[in-house]
Design goal:
Layout: H1 9-24, E1 35-38, E2 41-44, H2 59-76, E3 90-99, H3 103-114, E4 119-123, H4 130-135, H5 137-155, H6 170-194, E5 198-201, E6 203-208, E7 211-215, E8 221-231, E9 235-237, E10 249-250, H7 252-256, E11 264-268, H8 272-283, E12 287-292, H9 303-312, E13 317-322, E14 324-332, E15 335-342, E16 350-352, E17 354-357, E18 361-363, E19 396-398, H10 409-423, E20 437-439, E21 444-448, H11 452-457, E22 462-468, H12 473-477, E23 484-490, E24 496-503, H13 506-518, H14 523-527, H15 538-548
Parallel strand pairs: 3-4, 3-8, 4-5, 8-19, 10-17, 11-12, 11-17, 12-13
Antiparallel strand pairs: 1-2, 6-7, 7-8, 9-18, 14-15, 15-16, 20-21, 21-24, 22-23, 23-24
Helix pairs in contact: 3-10, 5-6, 5-8
């Protein structure tokens, strides 16, 4: 039997029309300008750009690009007044410099090298991967996995399976986390070597538009002269000025070191990072309190998603103080004393064994000497960029946290590919409207596109389909039926514009909905996609069926 496969109709028609126009030599007109699709990227040309059907630059264009590199390098060889390089300093020359080796930085360096550019990658850590891999996303997920297994083991008592109380060996747990990080950083080092990317460990600052000085740990000062540059210098944890220096007051990096398991722990800041670490320490035995200045935890997330998480985690917290802030902090022999002010502030100070400060992150735009290169940095430390990630200096690009919100590793990776390709002369552009976000708490919360609250605030006419996990066979069998899957559809076109999921493994489910938005799917496209049974991803198709009024897994909607 021959199966006839029909992809999402809107995307198919759009691409078909584009290819027909390309063959006819007519650029046509699409919603966001001429569009072509290459591999994983939807790439939109700028409004004033010439239409292209093939994105690979011509041989002549590539030669011109290489000639421009040589001209810039030659100009860089004439130091600016007052910025002479001493004979003792080592000079390194390259076509592409990448500053910062986080997910965005190493992706940019590897892509540039794949495109034939001689590339230098500067990183302050001894290993590649930046904050995300060394002291952020990856080690935190290793610890969250351990916490989830401990919680699941305890929950099995309700199903007739009991274990003894867990015995935690902190040294062994740290070793597991370190082993996970080492495996991934070692893989990156191997890929850099295979691509002949030169890696320099040290702290880099721009000297002028074509040179970067690197203070290395043991090899003195090096100067990198470059033709093109991509700034991927990331961000750092925000420091609160009233906090004293004390080993019992830590940021997220310090918390990942697992110095000890406190009896009482305060988390200052109710955002995703702080609540993820609260999940870990709670599983290890700590009692948690959270203080947050805004009206709710995880600001920016739909309240009903957060409420499901908060109800499931009520047992973890002795107090959640919203619309409240820490006013004063004083360490003493008994612990760390904290005074509060605000709506939920206790009358007396409280004492904690450990205080985690998770008040957000600030970009490193002011820490790299960008102004010396002529690169504009805004008041918050971000570097403004255009659709190709290009700064106001034409041959310098910026990506990742330093280029603006949201501060997410997967966003940085896609920006990295765009910047490297644009630097190599390709017509590559970044469209950041469909960037999924995940809180790796328990249960997880994931969303993509505008939230329901944002749709209401912006006056977007929308409809929704929301499937409760209490009706999911797999969720019930797992003993985790809290949560739901919600899809938002634009009223006029019927296309999916946003989605939110709360429940176990929500982060593993949201990718399908990001793809559906990219492909211009409507409820029929999603609902008629056959999802395997029994799975959690069924809830995606069932939510679409609910929107269409054809779902048979719930009682019929009441007739009006």
């Amino acid at each position: 039997m021959l199966l006839h496969f029909q992809p999402g109709r809107h995307r198919r028609h759009r691409l078909h029309a584009h290819h027909q126009r390309a063959r006819a030599g007519d650029p046509g007109s699409l919603e966001n300008g001429p569009e072509a699709v290459l591999g994983r990227h939807a790439i939109r040309a700028a409004p004033d750009a010439a239409p292209v059907a093939v994105l690979r630059p011509s041989r002549h264009r590539w030669r011109r690009r290489r000639a421009l590199h040589r001209i810039r390098l030659a100009r860089a060889g004439r130091p600016a007044q007052g910025a002479a390089v001493s004979a003792a300093e080592r000079m390194v020359e390259c076509e592409m410099l990448v500053l910062g080796a986080g997910p965005g930085g190493y992706s940019a360096a590897f892509r540039a090298a794949d495109l034939g550019m001689k590339t230098v990658l500067v990183e302050r850590y001894p290993t590649l991967g930046g904050v995300c891999l060394n002291v952020g996303c990856i080690p935190s997920k290793a610890l969250l996995h351990v916490a989830a297994v401990m919680d699941e083991a305890a929950a099995l008592a309700a199903h007739g399976v009991s274990f003894g109380a867990p015995r935690v060996d902190l040294e062994a747990l740290r070793g597991w986390k370190t082993k996970v990080v080492a495996r991934l950083t070692g893989g990156l080092a191997g890929m850099a070597k295979a691509r002949k990317v030169t890696v320099i460990q040290g702290v880099g600052r721009f000297i002028d538009p074509n040179r970067l000085a690197v203070e290395t740990a043991g090899a003195g000062r090096k100067v990198v002269r470059f033709g093109e540059a991509i700034i991927a210098a990331g961000s750092q944890a925000m420091k609160l000025p009233f906090l004293p220096e004390d080993s019992r007051i830590v940021d997220s990096t310090g918390a990942l070191d697992l110095p000890f398991v406190p009896k009482r722990m305060l988390v200052i800041g109710g955002g995703i990072i702080g609540l993820e670490m609260a999940t870990v320490y709670s599983a290890l035995g700590a009692r948690i309190e959270v203080v947050e200045m805004t009206a709710g935890l995880m600001p920016g997330t739909d309240r009903d998603l957060v409420q499901v998480w908060q109800k499931a985690n009520a047992r973890r917290f002795d107090a959640v103080m919203t619309e409240t802030r820490a006013l004063r902090v004083e360490p003493d022999a008994e612990g760390v004393r904290v005074w509060f002010e605000g709506k939920a502030a206790p009358a007396e100070p409280r004492t904690y064994d450990l205080v985690l400060v998770s008040a957000g992150r600030v970009p490193n735009g002011r820490a790299i000497g960008a102004e010396a290169a002529g690169v504009r940095v805004d008041d918050r430390g971000f570097i403004p960029v255009d659709g190709q990630m290009r700064t106001n200096v034409a041959h310098i690009f910026a990506i990742g946290d330093i280029a603006g919100q949201p501060m997410l590793a997967h966003k940085a990776v896609h920006e990295a590919h765009v910047a490297a390709e644009a630097a190599a002369g390709r017509k590559s552009f970044f469209d950041g409207r469909v960037i999924p976000a995940v809180a790796y708490t328990d249960p997880e919360i994931a969303w993509v596109g505008p939230t329901e609250a944002q749709c209401r605030e912006q006056g977007v006419a929308y409809g929704k389909g929301q499937f409760p996990w209490a009706a999911s066979g797999r969720a019930i069998a797992n003993g985790r039926d809290e949560g739901f899957t919600r899809l938002l559809f634009e009223e006029k076109s019927g296309r999916l514009i946003g989605a939110g999921i709360v429940g176990t493994h929500a982060g593993d489910l949201i990718g399908e909905l990001a793809l559906a938005i990219e492909m211009g799917c409507d409820a029929t496209d999603i609902g008629r996609t056959i999802h395997p049974h029994p799975t959690l991803c069924e809830s995606v198709g069932l939510a679409a069926e609910l929107f269409e009024g054809v779902c048979t897994d719930l009682p019929p909607a009441r007739r009006r």
